[in-house]
Amino acid sequence: MFEQLMRASRGIDALNEFVGKWIKWLILGSVLVSAGNATSRYALGMASNAWLELQWYFYAAVYMLAAAYTLKRNEHVRIDLISSRLTARTRNLIDAWGMIIFVMPVTLYICLEAIPNFWESVENMEYSQNAGGLIRWPLRMLVPLGFGLLFLQAFSELMKRIAFLKGVGEDALAHGGHADMDMDIDTEERK
After folding, report:
1. Which whole number is the average pLDDT over 126-144?
2. Are the beta carbons of 64 and 142 closer than 8 angstroms?
3. Contacts of 85 (CB under 8 A, 6+ apart)
4. Buried b / exposed e across 85-118, counting CB within 10 Å, b at 16+?
5. DSSP β-bridge partners for residue 127
6. Residue numbers of the domain that contains 15
7. Is 35 left (phi over 0), alpha (psi -120 to 50) or beta?
8. Res 185 pLDDT > 80
9. Cβ(53)–Cβ(128) below 8 Å
10. Domain count, the chain
11. Could you give phi then psi for residue 41, rounded to 5 degrees?
């Protein structure tokens, strides 16, 4: 049973790795849209609310969909002053309980609560109130999608913490994020 959960964890990791590696291209898209809109506004005297909205749609997509990727890579915010002084086992226990008590319930709740809002936007064919604005359902879809991916990644991280605590997996907190920065600092100090 646990091996099946670990297989699911690897699948979730692969999904969020894929999403994270591709979603970052929307930053370039946003910059290009912004530059094009500014150029057309100042050079040609033409501006478009649709282009402005598309720019922040892209940023919203990156922010919402890359959160799970950030968690997977252990790049999320952590209080290093405290966690760096704890044993690997204690850090993994805290992370596991944090996933169970906080991250998973909150992300699941937000995901489920956002779905009706998304469907209502689709059914009403909601558009921006700005003249020439975009449809809203793609933007509203990002909330359940982003929090759904984050919930799945939290489940995957929980499985990794449990595997480490059972002695059948490696310490996921030893790599990525600030752990790699600490190793770089240690290496620099030794030189």
Report:
1. 89
2. yes
3. none
4. eeeeeebbebbbeebeeebbeebbebbeebeebb
5. 135
6. 2-190
7. alpha
8. no
9. yes
10. 1
11. -70, -45
